[in-house]
Amino acid sequence: MTWTLVLTVFTALLLAQVVADTWLDALNRRQVRAHADKPPEAVREVMDAETYQRSVQYTLAKNSFGQWQGWYDALWLFAWIGLGLLPPLYHWLAGIFGGSLWGQAATLCALGIIMALPGLPWGWAAQFRLEAKFGFNKSTPKLWVTDLFKGAAVGLVLGYPLLCLVLWFVHWQPKWWWLWAWAVLLIFQLVMVALAPRFIMPLFNKLTPMPEGELRERLLALAERTGFHCSAIDVMDGSKRSTHSNAFFTGFGRFRRIVLFDTLIAQLSSRELEAVLAHEIGHYRRGHVPKMLAFSALSSLAGLGLVAWLAGQGWFYEGFRFSLADGMPAALLLFMLSAELVTFWLHPLGNWWSRKHEYEADAFARDALGEAAPLSSALRKMYEKNLSNLTPHPLFSFFHYSHPTLLEREAALRAPATA
After folding, report:
1. How far is CA 243 from CA 45, 82, 240, in A?
2. Is the model's pTM score more than 0.85?
3. For this structure, is 234 an active site residue?
4. Which of 213, 249, 272, 382 gives 268 a disulfide partner, CB atoms 3.0 to 4.6 angstroms apart?
5. Do the bridges between strand 232-236 and strand 257-261 make them parallel or antiparallel, or are there none, so unpaired?
């Protein structure tokens, strides 16, 4: 009875997610097609007719690709849990690696690798079919495979010892292990924010200091003027994988660095780059990073507390064809696989908060430069070069977009500044 009830709830949540995503995708496709031949007046200055048609086709292609991939992933998740493929695989690997802490962590890592394998063809198709078709892909099969192995290696080097430590806390403090684990994970996250730009990112991309010159001086002067003291401005060779562009800052304190994609520098003028940088500085000056870190910390605390409770519930194991004897490793695995079915419905709340931050950063950039035109011009160029969707359905945007649409951002930039 317990097994039937848990599986029914799991299947219902999975089906609800698939149906909701399918419905939202259909709404978005209908909205894009409705404006395919005659774009709204407000967006006609952003792209010429030919580019707009390419953006429509790119949006529709991504939408269709994402829908098929979503169904595929849902079927695999149902196969692992609903059809019972996971328990025998878990027990087979546990028999190989043993029941020690090191063995339990190895079992979970091996499972993670095996369960990621069915998704590899979709990653390949996204890069070398979808992105290549619209001229974005600059990667090579060799680079793609190299990135794959590097990512797996970094994940194992960092994740395996951390997982062993968490499992050790379970044995050392059976009642309060989750508080110790949370503290260690929080410290690890903060350390990685500081060290990743210097030790992890260079494994995948080349970061070089921006050459001396007018652009560098203008950007550094803007940073000083807005109270953002950084250790360096780096240029990332994003063009070796894609023509998509981006900018961000990373680290904190004296480790803070500004990173600009080389594609972005090639696409924008000096004044527009100042506006983009001012937007990124706005995230820092408005305290968005510590707010997001605090939210992440509270979320992980709640998640670990829930795992600790579920790990003592026999029905939780039995509902997924495990047993209470499988212990914490199985509880962690099952929680990670099923949590998204619940948090999926919270995406609009997270996106609302993220969009609020984007509006605030845009306003900061406008005020820092004394006008909205440079940021508006930069946004228009970035939307054009990335073939971004200019006419998303409001519900699709509400549920899936972490950033406001271009028209929403420009309307906010035109609004009077508030104190």
Report:
1. 22, 40, 8
2. yes
3. no
4. 272
5. parallel
